Each structure stands twice: as C-alpha cells, then as structure tokens.
TrEMBL record:
Native species: Streptomyces fulvorobeus
Domain of life according to the entry: Bacteria
Signal sequence region: none
Name of this chain's protein: Acyl-CoA reductase-like NAD-dependent aldehyde dehydrogenase
Domain Aldehyde dehydrogenase residue range list: 15-453
A Pfam family recorded for this sequence: Aldedh
Record-level Gene Ontology MF annotations: oxidoreductase activity, acting on the aldehyde or oxo group of donors, NAD or NADP as acceptor
Family: Belongs to the aldehyde dehydrogenase family.
Active site per the UniProt annotation: E239
Keyword set, alphabetical order: Oxidoreductase
C-alpha cells in the first residue's frame, strides 16, 4: 500500500469562515476564506505543473493508485469530519470514501488509446492522438462532497490535466482533507483545493488560465458558470439538478418494492440529484402506495449522523431547510394532505421529519421544482400515457424509474422517459463505467466511464501523405 507524504491540512493565516454542524446548528470549525485574487497564483502553478504531469501516463497511473490507497488509510479521519459538516450517517460517509477510492482506481487504470488510425480511403495517413486540456476548474455542491470531488479529479487527472477544485462553503473541511491526502501522493500543484465564498467560484469559472470548467450544482448556478466560462471560451461540463419521477405500474407489488422506493427518495435526507422526487401511482393502488411510504417515513430513525442508530440525518444547511419548509407549506396551502411528517423537528439543528404528501396539485412547486430534501409528493394517474407525460413534463431530465412485475413492460415504459438514466425496480444506482449525463436542463456534457475520460481530452489529429511506393 502506498504511503502519502502527510495529510495534515496546512494552517493558513488570513480570513476564515465558520463551518456549521447541521445536527446542532452551531459552528464547530473554520475554513480559509480565500480571496479570488489568490486564483491567479493558484492557476499559474496548476499550469506549470501540467507540463510534467501530462507527459507520463504510466507515472500518472502509479500516482493515482497510490492516492486511492491513501484515501482508504485516511478514511477514519475523513468519515467523522464528513458526517459532522454534511450531516449524513457515519456509515454513509464511509461508503462515500470507499466510492472515492474506487473511482480513483477505476480512472487510474482506464487509459485512452495513445493513437487511433483514421482510414477513409484517401492516400493520407491520419492519426488521432488524445491530448489533455490543461488546468481544469471544478466546482461542487455539499450533498456528496468527497464522491463528487473524486468524480471531478479522478478522470481529469487520469487524462493528464491538473485541477483547481472549489467545494461548497457548507462542506469545505472534508474536501480540504481529502485534497491534502490525494495531493500528497501526486507531484506538487497537480490538485489544489480552494475554499471561500462567492465570488470565488465565479472568478474560478471565468479565469483566463482555465481550459475546462466542470460544475455540479443547481441549474441557476450552472447557467452563471456557463456565462462566466464563455469569457475565455473554456469547455464546460454541467451536472445539474434533477426532479426524477418514479412511475409505479398496475402490476407492481407494493410491499415488495416499498423499502427500496422509500430509500431511493430519502437517502442522504433526499439530498441526491437523482433521488426519486415524485412518485406516480395508478389510481387503483394510490392509497396503498401512500400508506406504505408513510409507514416507512414514520418508522425511520432521524438523528445526528454520528449516532450509530441514525438512519436519516439533518438537512445540510439553513437555506435548504427553509426551501424544504416553504415547498411543503405551499403544497399544504394548495390542498395537499400531510400523511407523514410535514414539519421541523423540535430540537436544535436542521431536522425535518420525513414527509409524504398526498393529493398534491400537479402544478405545485414541490412537484414541478427540485425540493432536494426529505419530502416526497405521491400523485395518482389514470392512464399510463398520462403518467409518462407528467414524468416528462418538467425542464429536468436527470433520471427516472419504472416499477412493476413484468420487466419487459416496465422497460418499454422506461424507454419513453426523457432523461439520462432510467432504472427498472430501483433508482439512483450508478456504475463507474456508465456515461452519466442529464437531458434537458439537467446537464451539458457527459461524465462517467470512458466518456468521462474523453470529456477531459481533446482530439489532436496528425495528417501526413502515405509513403510513395
Ligand atoms: P449551488 O448551485 O448553489 O452551488 C454549487 C456550487 O457552486 C457551490 O460550490 C457554490 O459555492 C458554487 N457557486 C455558487 N454561486 C456560484 C457562482 N456564481 N459561480 C460559480 N460557482 C458558484 O448548488 P448546491 O445547493 O450546493 O447543490 C444542490 C444542487 O446540486 C441541486 O440542484 C442538485 O440536484 C445538484 N446536484 C447535481 C448533481 C448531478 O450530478 N447532476 C449531483 C449533486 C448535486
């Protein structure tokens, strides 16, 4: 197992900002509030480091495999810190770290071909040679800080780029620690983490030294990032919000799938881009589905992520809790019925009871927008066409799922969903080897698998005449 130089986070002087534990609502630590003017030097160093890093694919593989080992060794430090600032149960933090190490290994070993011949019948020998882009900027949200950081840096670095990555100010600490663990296994300045408030992200996205901006977050911020990157015409990859529908078919066995469906909606407190955010049930099964989900919502153990009994942690931050409360209140004002939850818990921290809403007007924002929290509306449908039309009837198109006993029939319905990934009888499971791309406003560009690697490369073509015989 490779060792890393050190994973001590360097102590910086200067301004710092408080990081809040969502289980208490109180600050528990601080992170550096870096000034956007620091980016010139940071991006400059990333550019200088790129010239060596890009040159030797074998050395990259070895270094990234060493980084994966180092992440696992650091798991016992990373997991509690992640839970403390993000809120998720500790076991899920460990899963996130395992996934981070696995992704590093996957991309370390996934190499693009050195060259590919082009044959089109002309007397020219053409060859594509894949080239890295240069310094890449990554900006990520607070729901899966480590997993999403690695989704950015593993393919970018494997492709021969360097990276400057900015986590959310709600979750800077575990990402800084991860960054120092990974960076210690790599040459200097190949990966740099910067932390701070806006306009740090905006300045990073529009920095003239950046060749590719890869962003994960909300649609509105994604649009701002794309506008910023347009200044230097940097390439842009956007992984944005989702409002995934789950369509239950007439032949679904409700009790058999209810646990899976519930956790597909509520894992990480519903703060998953591709969580189930709306459930469509046939009118005949409607009450049964509502009741099955409500029973589970009432039984779930909600608490601090560090408590070993906890199944569901708090919402990550106060503005997000406010959004969840206001979507719920508006739906209730419009006639929705609260079948489980529906309110904040009477304790410190950002806890919201797991909530199932029935009889929700289909144009209520909790249905048409992304609630990104522990609240799920269940809607009845008459005909299957109606259900598919409703599922496709938003600007989002990240994922969707179809649940039923006849798998061929379910797959035929899944084919009709306008989204990047459609699941049958489950939801939100991804393979490292698959392309991950939203349709409509859920994203631009492709991450994951070899598509993710090529997204960090550019084709460079050499033409030369065939040798004369
Ligand atoms: P957000 O858009 O508010 O913030 C995302 C990041 O952008 C943060 O680091 C933030 O500090 C930064 N940022 C804010 N303003 C910026 C600006 N003007 N320029 C550049 N950067 C800026 O999103 P959030 O609330 O942190 O995360 C939740 C959203 O992320 C949800 O919509 C969720 O669906 C989405 N998400 C998508 C995926 C995916 O793969 N499609 C994965 C996870 C989360």
């Amino acid at each position: 197992m490779a060792t890393h130089r050190s994973h001590q986070v360097p102590v910086l002087v200067g301004k710092r900002f408080a990081v809040v534990d969502p289980a208490t609502g109180e600050p528990f630590d601080e992170a550096p509030d870096q000034h956007p003017d620091e980016l010139d030097a940071v991006v400059g160093r990333a550019h200088a480091a790129w010239h060596t890093w890009r040159a030797d694919p074998g050395a990259r593989t070895t270094a990234l495999l060493g980084a994966a080992d180092a992440v696992e060794v650091a798991g016992a430090d990373l997991a509690p810190l992640l839970t403390r600032e993000q809120g998720k149960p500790l076991a899920e933090s460990y899963q996130e770290i395992a996934r981070t190490a696995a992704r590093l290994r996957y991309f370390a070993e996934l190499t693009a071909p050195q060259s590919q011949p082009i044959t089109d019948g002309r007397p020219v020998r053409g060859e594509v040679r894949w080239r890295p882009l240069g310094p890449v900027a990554a900006i990520i949200p607070w729901n899966f800080p480590l997993q999403l950081a690695s989704a950015k840096f593993a393919p970018a670095l494997a492709a021969g780029n360097t990276m400057v990555l900015k986590p959310s100010p709600f979750t800077p600490l575990a990402t800084r620690l991860l960054g120092s663990v990974v960076a210690a296994a790599l040459p200097d300045d190949v990966l740099t983490i910067v932390t701070g408030h806006e306009p740090l992200g905006a300045r990073l996205a529009s920095h003239p030294g950046i060749r590719h901006v890869t962003f994960t977050g909300s649609i509105t911020t994604g649009q701002a990032v794309a506008r910023g990157a347009a200044a230097s015409l940097a390439r842009v990859t956007l992984e944005l919000g989702g409002n995934d529908a789950a369509i239950l078919l007439e032949d679904v066995e409700v009790e058999r799938i209810a646990d899976r469906l519930f956790w597909a909606a509520f894992r990480n407190c519903g703060q998953v881009c591709m969580a189930v955010k709306r459930v469509y049930a046939p009118a005949r099964l409607y009450s049964h589905v509502v009741e099955a989900l409500a029973q589970r919502a009432k039984a779930v153990v909600v608490g601090a992520g560090l408590d070993p009994d906890t199944q569901l942690g708090p919402v990550n931050n106060a503005p997000q809790l406010g959004r969840v409360e206001s979507y719920t209140a508006q739906a209730v004002a419009e006639g929705a019925r609260v079948v489980a939850g529906g309110r904040r818990l009477d304790r410190p921290g950002y806890f919201f009871a797991p909530t199932i809403l029935a009889d929700v007007p289909p144009d209520s924002p909790v249905v048409t927008e992304e609630q990104f929290g522990p609240v799920v509306p269940v809607l009845p449908y008459g005909s299957l066409d109606e259900a598919v039309e409703a599922a496709n009837g938003t600007n989002f198109g990240l994922g969707g799922s179809v649940w039923g006993s006849d798998l061929d029939r379910a797959e035929a319905v899944a084919e009709r969903l306008e989204c990047g990934t459609a699941w049958i009888n489950h939801h939100a499971e991804l393979s490292l080897a698959q392309p991950f791309a939203g349709s409509k406003r859920s994203g631009v560009g492709v991450a994951g698998g070899s598509w993710g690697l090529y997204g960090n490369l550019r084709p460079f073509v050499v033409h030369r005449p065939q040798e004369e015989a």
